[in-house]
Amino acid sequence: MFLIISLRERTRSGSASATKRDQHHVIFFLIIISRDLVTLSTSCHQPFAAMMQEGLDDGPDFLSEEDRGPRAMNVDLEMDATLQVDISDALSERDKVKFTVHTKSTLPNFKQNEFSVVRQHEEFIWLHDSFIENEDYAGYIIPPAPPRPDFDASREKLQKLGEGEGSMTKEEFTKMKQELEAEYLAIFKKTVAMHEVFLCRVAAHPVLRKDLNFHVFLEYNQDLSVRGKNKKEKLEDFFKNVVKSADGVLVAGVKDVDDFFEHEKTFLLEYHNRVKDASAKCDRMIRSHKNAADDMNRIASSLYTLGTQDSMDLCKFFLKVSELFDKTRKVEARVAADEDLKLADLLKYYLRESQAAKDLLYRRSRALVDYENANKGLDKARAKNRDVLQAETSQQLCCHKFEKISESAKQELIDFKTRRVAAFRKNLVELAELELKHAKGNLQLLQSCVGVLNSNT
Amino acid sequence: SFSFSPTFTFSKFQILSRIPQPASLPALDISTNSNGPKQDSLMDDDPEDLFAGATEEVSLDSPERDVLLSDGPSPAITPITPPTSVIAPRIGHIEEEEGGDSFDVHISVSDPEKTSLSVFKQRDFSVKRRFSDFLGLHSKLASKYLHIGYIVPPAPEKSIVGMTKVKVGKEDQSSNEFVEKRRSALERYLMRTVKHPILLKDPDVLQFLENSELPRAVNTQALSSAGILRMVNKAADAVNKMTIKMNESDAWFEEKQQHFENLDVQLRKLHASVESLVCHRKELSVNTAQFAKSAAMLGNSEDHTALSRALSQLAEVEEKIDQLHQDQANADFYLFSELLGDYVRLITAVKGVFDHRIKTWQKWQDSQVLLLKKREAEAKLQFTNKPDKLQQAKDEIKELEGKVQQGERDFEQISKIIRKEVGRFEKERVKDFKTIIVKYLESLVQTQQQLIKYWEAFLPEAKAIS
């Protein structure tokens, strides 16, 4: 850990004089060390520096259910030796996160076989948007963009904790601080995983992986100088979305000749809405769970104080019960965290993916409408016997475009279903296994405590 | 075994309490806390205590839920016949009449022949009592016993908001819960009262237990003139407490007072946390139910059959879990939270008793000071030639001397009674906390066992997705 911090510090302070070779050495070192870590290291500024030591106590447990290598938690991807992408490290600074994107490839178009670059969230968005805007990719489900890293809530809580330090006992304060730091770490890990999944999906896609922007993203080790969208562009986006949704309504009304697509359309519309609802309800449920765990924390502290103050044989009793509540609280918090990972994240991810699938259907419908309009145009031109050739070429283009989209869309949607079923299966099985593991652990804690208490009285 | 269902009909509700206690109570190690040899004898059971071997317990059983939870190891214990009678009051709720709720008080006495009280010749009997009757009983006992040092258990509080809701006739979950809370609180109150050896012999208590009809208790309404008078007295007492500074010669009292102060603070804090837990657990139950519905809908729209079925199963599991959370929230409340609430109120009564001792001391001091003044006045009168005034002074002095002696006796009496009461109270407290908290933990055990069952049933369904 310390090695990493000091290395980074050296690069930062000596950046002006650092040669390219030095930088490569640093990166190489980072890769070596990071590869040995099971968890991600998070070296952050001031108040979270201690987190490195404490937060990682949770580390191995947290990721025990995830595999090493690409944390492709919600997607079922084939491991392909020709192009492997993962996020080997990440750095959380005050208001941004820096991801180290590591690539291993045998493809000839890369200068080296293995290399890393540092990317920020905006650059991921740039890449995603470039796919969306590329007409050639209209027939594919564009992997959904990762959500922006959001530590505001966690930061706020830590701040409030700092302010309220005087009003609670030292043990309580340390406990709550640990909890919040663990929460921060969990959010951090999640955002890294989500960014990684995006890259892996792109790398696994037979066409998208060849995209030039993607290669630049992976290889170009300078800043891509992608600025966030300014107000004007955001407004343009907004209008585009309005038009799209209005269009979407019109297009949705048109009954598709093709049964497959008609079925997919109805299915996706309903599915998307229900996943959205389920995701929201799941979040609320998990939040209540976390609140209950927090209460148990406070109960444990109060019982502890009672145990140290009370006279006679209630002392030992209270201390034992306090210890129990402390342990059981940790289990409950872990249950909430696992439910979050396995259920809530799964639902959120498929909310985004189903939206991407809907977008694909929309693009296809648009192409269909264009094709039909081109047909009408051709008929009109033939009737008037003017610009027939032009109309013919335009009609052929539209036809070709529509058929191309339809063909790839069909395959994409079938793949989507396969991926979805596999992801749900994996996560539901893991969820059930984890719930069982925790319930059994909790049961054992409770039973042994009750046993001890009963034998003492 | 613990179980609780809010959908029962009140009149059928049974409250049985059984504690795992041997016939003789565990010997408490009080040597570390004693202040002198006097202590030991006072901690022994009072020979007047009719129910010295009585056992107590608290648990809630509902016949409907037993089916669900009968699989786990049942913590129910077979009751052991104690050497003397056990009086176990149970309270059910009858439909409310005008003027407030009525409650069915069932008294069951085991071995009635062993008691010397006439009323308990029957094994089982029941009477109907109004909520105000309970309050009336408490107010009578408080006025008779608090100022001489007995810790009178406080009655459940009147809640104007809750009461009006019930009176309006709102037949909903929250008003049912309110009535159940009240019924449960009344039962615990009555149990504590009859457990007290002195209070049980009180004629008002016996009348409460045996009379078929009680005159409607006046002066118990919250906003009555008597109620306001009570509030004024309470405020006056609080002010007085701040101004009286007693020279505490007995370290035992100082230590105990500090002990109860600390206990008060800590129990209140703990109570607040447990109340928060109850609230969040209820929230969790509601949110889980909503998620279950949402998952069912998702399962419906999923077009892969195996996944669709698995999602529906998940929805079912979550629905069962939400009921589990609801039950656990009730255990959190009725076992843990109410225990703490009761003891917060009891400790207020204990502190009140200590305050009365201080007042008694003050009275004694005041009459001593007055006596001194009169003696000085008498000494002065000796040198004047007023024989009738002198005689009057001598008479007053005699009277005051009597008062001073009485004051001293009162003070010693109240001190003695408080020592015994605190001993009894602490014994009860230890018993209560241990048994009820263990019972609560057992409810947690059952919840986990159920959870395991549900998830074990779901796992193969999830694995069956192909």
From TrEMBL, chain A:
Gene3D superfamilies cross-referenced by the UniProt entry: Arfaptin homology (AH) domain/BAR domain, Phox-like domain
GO biological process: protein transport; retrograde transport, endosome to Golgi
Keywords: Protein transport, Transport
Family, per entry: Belongs to the sorting nexin family.
Stretches assigned to the PX domain: 77-224
Top-level taxon: Eukaryota
Family matches, as InterPro entries: AH/BAR_dom_sf, PX_dom, PX_dom_sf, PX_SNX6, SNX5/SNX6/SNX32, Vps5_C
Gene: SNX6
GO molecular function: phosphatidylinositol binding
Pfam families assigned: PX, Vps5
GO cellular-component term (any): cytosol
Name of the protein described by the UniProt record: Sorting nexin 6
From TrEMBL, chain B:
This protein's GO CC annotations: cytosol; early endosome membrane; lamellipodium
All copies of domain PX, residue ranges: 81-216
Protein name: Sorting nexin-2
PANTHER family cross-referenced by the UniProt entry: SORTING NEXIN (PTHR10555), SORTING NEXIN-2 (PTHR10555:SF31)
InterPro entries: AH/BAR_dom_sf, PX_dom, PX_dom_sf, Vps5_C
GO biological process terms on file: early endosome to Golgi transport; protein transport
Coiled coil: 390-417
Family in the record: Belongs to the sorting nexin family.
Region (Disordered): 24-48
Pfam families the record matches: PX, Vps5
Main subcellular location of this protein, as a coarse class: other
Membrane topology: Peripheral membrane protein
GO molecular function ontology, one term from the record: phosphatidylinositol binding
Subcellular localization: Cell projection, Lamellipodium; Early endosome membrane
Function per UniProt: Involved in several stages of intracellular trafficking. Interacts with membranes containing phosphatidylinositol 3-phosphate (PtdIns(3P)) or phosphatidylinositol 3,5-bisphosphate (PtdIns(3,5)P2). Acts in part as component of the retromer membrane-deforming SNX-BAR subcomplex. The SNX-BAR retromer mediates retrograde transport of cargo proteins from endosomes to the trans-Golgi network (TGN) and is involved in endosome-to-plasma membrane transport for cargo protein recycling.
Keywords, comma-separated and alphabetical: Acetylation, Cell projection, Coiled coil, Endosome, Membrane, Phosphoprotein, Protein transport, Transport
